[in-house]
Design a protein that fits this description.
Helix content: 55-70%
Number of strands: 8
Oligomer: single chain
Strand content: 5-15%
Largest sheet: 5 strands, antiparallel
Order of helices and strands: HHHEEHHHHHHHEEHEEEHE
Number of helices: 12
Number of domains: 3
Structural class: alpha+beta
Radius of gyration: 33 Å
Length: 344
C-alpha cells in the first residue's frame, strides 16, 4: 500500500530552499578559509622580508659604507645601536654622528667657497676619528658616573644651556640661539642638550676621581696664602704640575676661556679668586686680577689639570678594552672633547 505524500506547507518550502542555498555555499567555505590563511602568511612573510632588507641596508650604510647623512642620524636617535664598546659600555652611534656632524656642518656649508674637494675629504676623515674618540671617552665617563653614583639632572643641563645661550655676554632669545646651533652645528635643541649632558658627565667624573689634582690644588691654595698670592712664585715651585698663564694685557671680560675672565671681573686688582672648576671641566682654576675697566680685564691664572680620567681611559685602551665596529682612517689631529660654543 503506497502512502500518499502530504503537500508541503509554505514554511517547509522556505526551509527547504534555505537548506539548498546553504549546502551550495558550504563547498566554498573551506577554500575561502584557506585563502585567508595564505593571505595572512604571505603578508607576514612580506613584512619580514622588507624589514630584513631595511635592516641589512641600514647595517651596510652605517657599518660598511660609513654614511653620515641626516636620515641615518635620526634613525640612530630612535634605535640606540652601538658604534663601539668601551669597557663593556656601549658607545652610541647617535653620539658619534652628533659629534661628527656638529664639526662638519659649517665646513660642508662653506666647502664651495673656502675648501676644495680634497681638503673636505681630508677633514671628514679627521673629524670622524675625532668624533669617535670623543664619543668613546664620553661613554666611558657615563660608565664611571654610574659606578660612582654621579647623576646629571635636567636642571643642570638646562642651566648649562642657559649659560651657553648668553655666552660672550650677548643676550639672545632661545629661538635665535637654536637657529645659531642649527646653522653652525646642524643640531636641534634636544641634540645640543645631549652634548651638554655628555660634557657635564665627563667634567663631574673627571673631578670626582682625580685625587692628585685635588692635592695639588690644596698645595696651590696653601702656597698662595703663605706668599701673598704670588702666582709666578707658585708656578716656579710647582713646575709642570700646573699651567701658569698671563693675559699680557686687557681682554674682554666675557672672553670664552673656561670662566677665568668672568671670575677675574668679580675681583678688585690684586685679589685672588680661590679654587674653582673650569667651565669646560678640564681642571681647577685660580685667577688673580691685575687690572680692569668696565668691559675688560687683565689677569694671571693657574690651572691644575685633571689627568686621572685620561690615564684610566688610556689604560682601558691599551688593555684592549675598546672595540670599534666601524673602520676610520687614522688621524694625527688632536681630539677636542669640549662642547663647541655657539658663534655670534
Amino acid at each position: 500500500m503506497k502512502l500518499k505524500k502530504s503537500p508541503q506547507t509554505a514554511q517547509e518550502k522556505v526551509d527547504e530552499r534555505r537548506e539548498e542555498v546553504l549546502s551550495k555555499g558550504r563547498k566554498f567555505k573551506y577554500p575561502l578559509q584557506f585563502s585567508r590563511h595564505r593571505i595572512v602568511v604571505n603578508t607576514i612573510l612580506i613584512i619580514i622580508v622588507v624589514l630584513t632588507a631595511i635592516t641589512i641596508s641600514m647595517w651596510l650604510a652605517l657599518y660598511r659604507f660609513g654614511m653620515t647623512d641626516e636620515f641615518l642620524f635620526r634613525i640612530t636617535r630612535v634605535f640606540p645601536v652601538p658604534v663601539a664598546h668601551v669597557d663593556n659600555e656601549n658607545v652610541l652611534f647617535s653620539d658619534y654622528l652628533m659629534l661628527y656632524r656638529s664639526s662638519m656642518t659649517s665646513i660642508e656649508r662653506q666647502s664651495g667657497s673656502q675648501f676644495d674637494e680634497e681638503s673636505v675629504a681630508h677633514l671628514r676623515a679627521e673629524y670622524k676619528r675625532s668624533a669617535l674618540d670623543d664619543s668613546e671617552k664620553f661613554s666611558y665617563a657615563i660608565k664611571l658616573a654610574k659606578e660612582l653614583g654621579i647623576e646629571i639632572s635636567n636642571d643642570e643641563v638646562e642651566a648649562e644651556f642657559t649659560r651657553h645661550l648668553n655666552i660672550g655676554g650677548v643676550e639672545r632669545s632661545e629661538e635665535s640661539f637654536i637657529k645659531i646651533i642649527e646653522d653652525n652645528f646642524g643640531l636641534n635643541k634636544s641634540e645640543y642638550e645631549r652634548m651638554l649632558y655628555l660634557s657635564i658627565a665627563k667634567a663631574k667624573v673627571s673631578e670626582a676621581i682625580d685625587e692628585n689634582a685635588k692635592n695639588i690644588a690644596s698645595e696651590v691654595e696653601r702656597m698662595l696664602s703663605e706668599n701673598g698670592n704670588n702666582y709666578s712664585a707658585v708656578a716656579t715651585a710647582l713646575g709642570d704640575k700646573i699651567i701658569y698663564q698671563e693675559t699680557g694685557g686687557l681682554v674682554d671680560s666675557k672672553n670664552i676661556d673656561g670662566g677665568r675672565a668672568t671670575e677675574a671681573a668679580k675681583l678688585e686688582p690684586g685679589g685672588s679668586s680661590g679654587k674653582f672648576v673650569s667651565m669646560n671641566g678640564d681642571g681647577y682654576y685660580f685667577v688673580k686680577l691685575v687690572e680692569k675697566n668696565d668691559s675688560q680685564v687683565n689677569f694671571v691664572s693657574i690651572r691644575v689639570p685633571f689627568t686621572e680620567f685620561n690615564s684610566r681611559f688610556d689604560k682601558v685602551k691599551a688593555e684592549g678594552g675598546i672595540s670599534e665596529l666601524i673602520t676610520i682612517e687614522a688621524s694625527n689631529t688632536p681630539t677636542n672633547t669640549e662642547t663647541p660654543a655657539p658663534t655670534e
